[in-house]
Amino acid sequence: MTTAIGRQLDASAKPDPSTRGAWRYGRLWRDVPGSLLFLLPNLPIVIAGCVVAVVILSLGFGLAILGVGLLIIVGGLWVSRAFVELEVARLRTTGLPPIRGGAWRSSIGTETTLGAVLAPLAGPRWWLAALHTVIVNPIVGGVTWGLTITWTVGAVAGTTYWIWADRLSAGSSSGFAELLAPTLDPSDALLADKLWNLALGVVFLVTLPLVLRVLVLLHHAIASGLFGARPQEELRAELLAERRARGAAVSAEAGAVRRLERDIHDGPQQRLVRLQMDLAAAERRLDTDPASARSLLGEARAQAAETLDELRALSKGLMPPLLQDRGLVAALDDLAARCPVPTRTELAVVSSVTLPRETERGIYFIVAELLTNVSKHADARRAGVEAHATVDQQLGSRLTLRVTDDGRGGAHLEPGHGLEGLTERAQGLGGRLVIESAPVWDGVARGSAVSISLPVG
């Protein structure tokens, strides 16, 4: 939410319309070093990529009939991709927006080793990378490199010509001004030549940031058009992510239902069977052995009390009463207070966001399971539950909860174990779970941290 102070800061940060042109021109000058860092070494990099890719691809096509050539072609495609990714990474120095790369898909399945190796042969983006490295970038890079050298040398040499012009040999021509006015005295011709070169240098210098910006924009547009993420690909990726999240949610909920069924079968159901048998025995002995019947009724009452306690405990697995009545912060504080390991909490951020009830429930059980793991397996002396709110340009506003401990570390994902189930539950909530834990070595305590990042708003 934007506050009044934030709106004032935003207003003060915007340039005045009367000085907006100068402000934008100043920004262009600020990006000049990064643009030169990209453009000046561009030609050697482009030539190296072209030569290496052409040699490997030519050899591969020549030997394609023998089969081994296909593997060599794949190597050439990987080289082309490497130079494309180098180009995209180098463009980040220019101050232009980073290029979000698209997926390097292939119509060949990667389930087998051979399919994974030969997949680039059936990937359109891989062949675009080869086209870019072998043909497009050498042409564009040669032109932009030549213009960069021309404008840079012209700006530097022209604006400094008056300093070193006197050091030229006396027998040499005084320059372009003397050609225009051959009747001038040598000293006047030299002065006119200095002024002429200074004027040219100023023109080159003033237009240098504009020219460099156009050149890097050309490279950026080509790389973005060929290798940037397309709207269709982003939509497909979002759809796949949504399907995976739904699948993970269904899997996590199915696992929770199975655990609940098992717990009911092994606990309350067995106690209710025992209770039924005790009541039946007490009913048979009520007339013949009242003392024994009274004893059986006492045991039945105890069984009923224990069954009620177990049912209450299981009902918390559906929706803990504290979470339902007082909210997520109070429920997490209660988890931390009941954890055998002393646990501190920093959850003020959670109160400032609004979460769906199912998301709160999922967060509660993830944190509860993580704290249980800390108390059982970490050998920790202290633990913590922290919450942070972040804003990502691509992911939007997110709430991150971080459970830490100073134990021995070694936490990792393993099929069929608890952390994998927590990962599925986090994906089902539209978030992700990240584990930061060094492997156990010589029993040295390295600690662990598990973060749950969820979208909000």
UniProtKB/TrEMBL annotation:
<feature type="transmembrane region" description="Helical">
    <location>
        <begin position="36"/>
        <end position="57"/>
    </location>
</feature>
<keyword id="KW-0547">Nucleotide-binding</keyword>
<dbReference type="InterPro" id="IPR050482">
    <property type="entry name" value="Sensor_HK_TwoCompSys"/>
</dbReference>
<keyword id="KW-0418">Kinase</keyword>
<dbReference type="Pfam" id="PF13796">
    <property type="entry name" value="Sensor"/>
</dbReference>
<feature type="domain" description="Putative sensor">
    <location>
        <begin position="38"/>
        <end position="226"/>
    </location>
</feature>
<feature type="transmembrane region" description="Helical">
    <location>
        <begin position="195"/>
        <end position="218"/>
    </location>
</feature>
<feature type="domain" description="Signal transduction histidine kinase subgroup 3 dimerisation and phosphoacceptor">
    <location>
        <begin position="258"/>
        <end position="321"/>
    </location>
</feature>
<keyword id="KW-0472">Membrane</keyword>
<keyword id="KW-0067">ATP-binding</keyword>
<keyword id="KW-0597">Phosphoprotein</keyword>
<dbReference type="InterPro" id="IPR011712">
    <property type="entry name" value="Sig_transdc_His_kin_sub3_dim/P"/>
</dbReference>
<dbReference type="InterPro" id="IPR036890">
    <property type="entry name" value="HATPase_C_sf"/>
</dbReference>
<dbReference type="GO" id="GO:0016301">
    <property type="term" value="F:kinase activity"/>
</dbReference>
<keyword id="KW-0808">Transferase</keyword>
<feature type="transmembrane region" description="Helical">
    <location>
        <begin position="134"/>
        <end position="164"/>
    </location>
</feature>
<feature type="transmembrane region" description="Helical">
    <location>
        <begin position="63"/>
        <end position="84"/>
    </location>
</feature>
<keyword id="KW-1133">Transmembrane helix</keyword>
<keyword id="KW-0812">Transmembrane</keyword>
<protein>
    <recommendedName>
        <fullName>histidine kinase</fullName>
        <ecNumber>2.7.13.3</ecNumber>
    </recommendedName>
</protein>
<dbReference type="InterPro" id="IPR025828">
    <property type="entry name" value="Put_sensor_dom"/>
</dbReference>
<keyword id="KW-0902">Two-component regulatory system</keyword>
<dbReference type="Pfam" id="PF07730">
    <property type="entry name" value="HisKA_3"/>
</dbReference>
